[in-house]
Every structure is written in structure tokens, then in C-alpha cells.
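Example 5.3 — Anaphase-promoting complex subunit 4 WD40 domain-containing protein
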Amino acid sequence: MDKTVRVWEISKGTCIRVVYGVSSQLCICFHPVNNNLLLVGNANREINAINFSTGRVISKLTCDNAVTALDIDHTGQLIFAGDAQGYIYTISVNSHTGSLSRTHKNKSCKSKSSVTTIQYRTFSLVARCPVLLSCAQDGNLYFFSIATNSHGYLTLICSLKLASPVQNIRASFCPLLSLEKGEFIVTGSGDSNVYFYDLARPKNSCVNKLQGHGSPVMGVAWNHGENLLASSDSDGTVIVWKRAKTN
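Solution (predicted C-alpha cells):
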């Protein structure tokens, strides 16, 4: 919110680079192929490609509204970005030069609420292709298939309304669980619980609920090994959950 992008060395907890912008920097991700490339969405309706070594903006693309969430595919060729009015953009990126160009603007979302989550997945057993998860401030969650041969065109597979939504709740795929039986996602909630949904079931039924927070749960994140889930609430409490072993 102070208009900066900051890169941290996690082992020491120190900031090693500060890039100053002209508006609030709302979302960020590293490029998966070019480690010298940062992709940043801001309140000034821009997506900036930043050279990590120099801190300079090497390319920018203007969207229609503030860019509030983004993710990039595993090849580093497609960016998926959500804005403050619920639209999702597909943007092609050159891994070497960082140049950006818009290919699609998705209008299938009924929500006009700000996008809080954009998450890409390489493959889905349900869709049999790459997929995208999107969540909006009003609690509407969308699950898309991605047409890689059509420059990342999105097709809506299903949607659901989350329990007790509050502003800025995040959602996430459940990586390992989804390879077993269905298409599981995990979300925060305004009623202080963490919910698991299976998008492969009729009516996208809730399959599990974690209780332990005392205020609305805003964020959820898996560790690299995908056996630990962290959830954070509006009072600043973080709970780490260990996935139970199954036979």
C-alpha cells in the first residue's frame, strides 16, 4: 500500500530490493522461467514486468481497472490477472524480454466484485486440461478450463457461493487431495471457519470444515510439501494444520 515492491531474503528476514511505484502494488509473482523477472499488478490499472536485478520496469500493460490478483502458467507464457470489477484477463508474456500483450478479457463472471484470488493449475482430473481458480470479494468462486491452443481462453466449468463471505477472502486448490478423488479447494470464511469444497460433486458440496479461529479467516496457503495448511484471520492469528494420513 506504500507503493513499493519489496523482495526479501527469507532465511535472514531482510529486504534486499525496493522498487518504488506510483500507486499501491496489489499483487505480485515471480516469473517461473526467468528468475530475473517480477510481475506486479497495481491500483493504477497496470501490470508491470520488473527487472529484479536493476529494479526497472521493462514492460507494462494497462487493464480497465485496478489489478488485484494474478498468477502465471508453468511455461511462463501466460499471465492470468483479475481486476477490481471482477474481470479476468489473459496476457501473453515474452520470457526473455518481458514484453506483455493482452489476448482475452473474460466476461463470464456474474460478479462485479474485486477479484481476491487467481490460481493456475497445470492439470485437472475433472477438466482434463489446465484450469484456473478465481475468487471475488462477494464470495463467488469460479472454476475455469484453459484452452492453451487458443492463447489461454477461459471457459467456465462451475461456480459456487462461499459460506459467510467477507471482503478479501482467499481460496486455494488442494494439491495432493485433488489427485485422489475430486477437485478440492480450500477457502477462508466470515464465520471463522476454514472450508473444503469438492468441485467435482453435485452442487459443489462442502466436504470438511476446520474450526479454531475466533475471527473471519482471510487467507489460506499450503507449504511446498503440501502436507501443511496455514490459515490467517482478521485478528492476526495464524493456525498451521497438518494433513491427516490416510490409508
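Remark. The two ends are 46 Å apart (CA to CA).
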